[in-house]
Specification:
By secondary structure, the protein is an alpha/beta fold. The chain has helices at about 15-25, 40-50, 60-65, 80-90, 105-120, 135-140, 170, 180-185, 185-195, 295-310, 320-340; strands at about 5-10, 30-35, 55-60, 70-75, 95-100, 125, 150-160, 200-205, 220-225, 230-240, 245-255, 255-260, 270-275, 285-290, 345. Helices cover about 30% and strands about 25% of the residues. Bound molecules: NADP nicotinamide-adenine-dinucleotide phosphate. NADP nicotinamide-adenine-dinucleotide phosphate binds near residues 15, 39, 126 and 128.
């Protein structure tokens, strides 16, 4: 199949450092041909890096969307602008991929799912953690550990003073619910829910440790999984003092357990133990996982490429409906915490 022509909307940090290198590493599939950014000079710089002519830097989003040479739009905007970008693309009959979180709040997220599900156009949310090979490796072994009855997810780490993302004003004064809890938390939720199932209800406490975070930046919670007797815990935050970065998901079954270790993203490990009890425990099996250096972005792009090239949105993995659930979990963390940890139901689509 020929490469698809991509128009980029929002040429900020992640467009430049995250998406563009992946597009450029795979010229068989992608060619970046146009851009639009609120501050035009940044889009001109981006055009130089992406090696397309300056006359393909547009002054407004609709001109880019309506460029007949653009096969699909890749939007990297603060979440409050996602719904508008999707509406514009649907009006112009153009597929669009938007960055996570799906929206700034649940009202917008619901409207976005509604309109996305009414069109045949592929519309996807860029939640790259949904595409980790570690998930595929763990999934392969899940049936071996029997019914899943518990899980523990921990993603905690030290506050990073010189974080390039921290300097963006939309993160310092977030319009999106949960601030960093939704900004990064939806990645964690994509990983956990793809392996243990959707969250049904949550009891959580959230808190703001760092003023620079702009909103609450840590959460500790207990979870009930939908249509399952599985219960578990979910802890997230990178706002602490010096400590190791510690990311793991442990899944407990009645016939064994699986541990997904992502603390060292360059060398993830999946550990499996099979057996019904301590007396019948197999040896620990250790599977070293190779992740693409883009940590799921390449696989996410390839999935969108397939859906656009084959005109088949049913191929999409990171759908608006899936991303709705991840943001709904964040909304439930916040609601539960405001009610001193009461157990609250996660909004269903
Ligand atoms: N998947 C991941 O791991 C990951 C990692 C990082 C970021 N992201 C996502 O990528 C997106 C961009 O984040 P970033 O870190 O690159 O931030 P950023 O550098 O601030 O980029 C945001 C971009 O949106 C543009 N923008 C702001 N307000 C706008 C408006 N009203 N209309 C149109 N454009 C507007 C900004 O333009 P100006 O420059 O003119 O302000 C800027 O180019 C976010 O959705 C973020 O969640 C994802």
């Amino acid at each position: 199949m020929a490469p698809l022509n991509v128009g980029v909307v929002g040429t900020g940090i992640f467009a430049r450092d995250g998406h563009l290198p992946v597009f450029q590493a795979h010229p068989d599939k992608f060619k970046v041909v146009a851009a639009y950014n609120k501050t035009k000079s940044k889009a001109i710089d981006f055009a130089k890096l992406a090696e397309f002519p300056e006359d393909k830097v547009y002054d407004d989003m609709d001109s880019l969307i309506n460029d007949k040479n653009v096969d699909y739009v890749d939007a990297l905007l603060p979440a409050q602008f996602n719904l508008d970008a999707v509406k514009r693309c649907i009006a112009a009959n153009k597929p669009i991929q938007i960055e996570k979180p799906i929206a700034a709040n649940m009202k917008q997220a619901r409207e976005l799912v509604e309109i996305a599900e009414k069109t045949d156009l592929p519309i996807a949310i860029s939640e790259n953690w949904s595409f980790l090979q570690s998930i595929n490796v763990a999934k392969k072994h899940l049936p071996r550990i029997g019914e899943i009855v518990g899980f523990q997810h921990n993603s905690t780490g030290p506050f990073v003073l010189h974080n390039k993302y921290m300097a963006t004003s939309w993160r310092q004064h977030p319009e999106h619910i949960g601030g960093f809890l939704s900004d990064g938390g939806v990645h964690q939720l994509a990983l956990v829910t793809s392996l243990v199932g959707e969250f049904e209800s949550i009891s959580a406490l959230t808190s703001q440790v760092r003023e620079a975070s702009g909103d609450d930046d840590i959460v500790f919670s207990t979870i009930k999984i939908r249509d399952s007797k599985c219960i578990g815990s979910f802890s997230y935050g990178s706002a602490f003092g010096a400590t190791d970065k510690w990311i793991y998901l442990k899944i407990y079954g009645v016939n064994g357990s699986i541990m997904v270790e992502l603390s060292n993203k360059a060398a993830p490990v999946v550990r499996v133990k099979v057996g019904s009890d301590a007396e019948h425990s197999g040896e620990e099996e250790v599977y070293n996982v190779t992740e693409d250096k883009s940590f799921g972005v390449y696989e996410e792009f390839t999935n969108f490429y397939d859906a656009v090239a084959k005109k088949d949105k049913s191929l999409l993995i990171s759908t608006p409906r899936a991303a709705f659930h991840h943001l709904a979990c964040v909304a439930a963390f916040i609601e539960s915490s405001a009610r001193k940890g009461d157990h609250v139901d996660v909004e269903k689509y």
